[in-house]
Design brief:
Order of helices and strands: EEHEEHEHHEE
Number of strands: 7
CATH superfamily: RNA Cap, Translation Initiation Factor Eif4e
Strand order of the largest sheet: 1-3-4-2-5-6-7
CATH architecture: 2-Layer Sandwich
Largest sheet: 7 strands, antiparallel
Helix content: 25-40%
Shape: globular
CATH class: Alpha Beta
Length: 152
């Protein structure tokens, strides 16, 4: 077991790998916090995670992020990365972090609120049929897009 490894693909790593920094901005997370989520191939996750950790340390991505192997897709070798924002209604901060992700080479990501996660609303075609949602924002081919939430 490897509880302290900072490398996502370390053979002993199980579960989420968290990175949290103690800085004064942004303010404390609140009930409106949210997250940018994106998938990364196993061959790229270690180097990207190192860059994410650096961007967090420099205050470019807020305070925290996590990554873990995608366990809910059969035979997947991908990892999911989650970069948290303190408040989904602070559009300037959400877009600022999106731009930093683009600068790190992320071209495809989606944004959701923690409230949507607590409500177990997930994206994707099947989720939409089951009353899911469309992400509030997306990064698509390096562009930040705004989308309307769908509820049923």
């Amino acid at each position: 077991m490897c509880d302290d490894c900072a490398v996502p693909t370390h053979p002993g790593r199980k579960g989420w790998l968290f990175e949290t920094v103690a800085n004064t901005y942004p303010p404390k997370d609140d009930e409106h916090s949210g997250k940018w989520c994106f998938y990364v191939p196993a061959q790229q996750i270690d180097s990207l995670w190192l860059n994410i950790r650096g961007a967090l340390a420099w205050g470019k991505l807020g305070k925290k992020a996590k990554t873990g192997k995608v366990w809910y897709r059969q035979n997947s070798t991908s990892y999911i990365v989650v970069v948290y924002t303190y408040n989904a209604t602070d559009h300037a901060d959400v877009f600022r972090i999106a731009q930093e992700l683009i600068n790190l080479g992320i071209n495809d990501a989606f944004y959701k609120t923690d409230e949507q996660t607590h409500e177990r609303l997930y994206n994707g075609p099947m989720a939409l049929k089951q009353g899911g949602y469309r992400p509030l924002y997306r990064i698509d081919q390096g562009m930040i897009l705004s989308q309307k939430r769908i509820t049923s």
